[in-house]
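D-alanyl-D-alanine carboxypeptidase/D-alanyl-D-alanine-endopeptidase
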Amino acid sequence: MRPTRRTTISVSALLLASLAWASAPASAVEPASGVTDLVKDIDQILSDARLTPARAGVVVKSATSGEELYAQDSGKVLTPASNAKLVTSAAAADTLGLDFRFTTSVLSTGRRAGSALAGNLYLKGTGDPTLLAADYDALAARVAASGIKVVTGKLVADDTWFDSVRLGTDWAWDDEPYYYSAQISALTASPDTDYDAGTVVVSVAPGDAAGKPAKVSTTPETDYLKIVNRATTGAETDVLIERQHSTNTVLITGTVADGYDEWVTVDDPTGYVASLFRKALAKHGVRVLGSTAREATPAGATTVASRDSMPLSELLVPFMKLSNNMHAEILTKSIGRKVSGAGTWSAGLAAVTSFAQANGMPTLRMRDGSGLSRADGLTPGGVTDLLLALRSKPWFSTWYGSLPIAGDPDRMVGGTLRSRMRGTPAAGNVHAKTGSLTGVTSLSGYVTSADNEPLVFSVMLNQFLSGSPKDIEDKIAIRLAQFSRTAPADVANVQLRQAQQDSADVECSWLKPVSC
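Predicted structure tokens:
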């Protein structure tokens, strides 16, 4: 199992299609014979033998009237995987606001004597997942520009905006090295503009000749990781890059014929960020004589430099399009900090749950914000009712624009649905959130029928044993795009071949390499 991403932020033009959803009328629609055909066809799709030992929950409703067009186990609690992000992202938009930004500050205590600071220099974070090594470098440059050349005290990393719990309670320990299960800290860094917080890209390339050691580099350059390189140059690329449990030692084995990248988590992001910042200060001629420490910034400390992140309205794009787990968890703790003054999972999840219960989802269990926990539980009926309720929110069009769009090849438009349902009536039509864990798949969102009627749907498939049933999700979504209350669907011509070909065992968000 593995969650995806890879981002250069682009939010223009995503809202145009969403305006129709925000303004759709709420008039009732009379049921017609086409509903009977729809029920029969979805029943047929769900008769797939792969679901015989599994649990399948499916709900379809009219977005204009709320009429239930199809339901199977609508009230059963199922594992949602990344469909949990529908709840977290909506709660973040509602609680934090689309203008919300993370602030990272450099502050000082003590007195200035010329170019010397007789005191400590503090780096205070609030969880910004978009900070790159270059951004810490820019903060260091501003410290130097302020006239500080020597710090006689310590460099202090202040990550107290969040608590010190780094990993989710239910997360599997063997997921720890992988980027989709990175540690959560109020001070973190990303290696690229997918904003995979708490990770470093480890790159392996062929050496000088066959049998010779492979060449290894990291992005950003850092000595925080200890690289143990046992990989050699060979005729094919079959390489394993893995951080050893509870350490920052990265063991590389196998052979490499072509360049290969792996996004590797760091143990203790706060320490990693402190090392990046200390090195950046030295690069800009700022010497810190004291050691690196951790503590809260004292009240009254003087701000030397600061940086604000992009607003949440923009962050929603890489978060939702690429199903970024760490964004979900950071926002969960940020919600807790705002609502209860505690940057903890418990505080954040309590607020997220209250939001969901107040917006059509009375039954849910949230153990994290991303859906990485197998103890998370949502009902298909609750998901569709939430999707209906969100349409009346003032921020809906922006949030809707962040959902993956079926069949659009642009990573920042199609997201985790970019290779699915191409060449079908669902392409460019279905706006939905994917979800994948081993034995779990889900797809929930919005689609417009052949009658131009907006629909909401949720498909949750749990406990299947073999063979990906993602094509079952696609078949249902395509059938909904063909749904007409008055004209029978030409089911024989439902274009499913592409959907079947493009539905991998897991969603693309579990496969980090650039090809994904």
